[in-house]
Amino acid sequence: MKTKTRVRWGIIFSLLFTATLLTTSCEDDDDGVLVIYSYEDAQEAIAISLAYESYGLVANFDKVSEEIEGNHECEVLNEESESETGDFTASGLTTYVYDYTESFTKYCDPDLYVSYDLLAEQTIESVRISKTHTIHVDFITTGLEDSSENEIYNGAYTRNGGWETVYSNENYDFTYESDVVDVQVSKETGKIVSGTSTFTLTEEYSYNNLTYTYTGIVKFIDEDKAKITFDSGEVFYVNTNNLSISN
Fold first, then answer.
1. Tens digit of pLDDT for each residue in 81-90?
2. Per-residue pLDDT for 174 more than 80?
């Protein structure tokens, strides 16, 4: 589901580029105003990078939580490679194959925590899209003591790959890099309770040779809703279950 109101950013972003570059790289609307829809693309790229349905960041909290529940020995490396399939509905029905290699180690002394690392490739297919995304997850998980109600995640999540622009059939490449800060996941339900992540999103449009960078913060409100605030002040929300976007 796309937002009902779309903001035209051409005038704002024209300040960041030379007049010559903009004239040769952007399409004009009916009023002759330069219009760039990178903001709408950014919303969708962030949603894909976050949601359960697209095997985004929050799906990895769930994955790690399942992996570390067992009675693993201290300071023993655990490794596994697997493949999973799924589908989601951004830009039409999209299927994927998610191939990953994960490793984690439980440490018990002097502090109890798990160090987790994952490298993955996600091959994405739809009627108009055939892309491969690469993902890297690097977490430290604490709160593992019996007395703690929640697991606590800190670390980094990165995704890069290609996608289709919101208002045309053109493609672009994006890189989503984030630092996860104190995300708490309930041991009882496996759902996110709270936490944040800061991010940098870079979009590269090869067809008009333009690059845009967005920075901001994700606040996890509950198990299925995240508030995204760009450093420039714009705010929107992502349903982390179904990828829907709202203002």
1. 999 999 988 7
2. yes
CB 68 within 8 A of CB 106: yes
Residues 241 and 224: beta-carbon distance below 8 Å: yes
Mean pLDDT of 46-65: 93
Residue 177 has pLDDT above 90, yes or no: yes
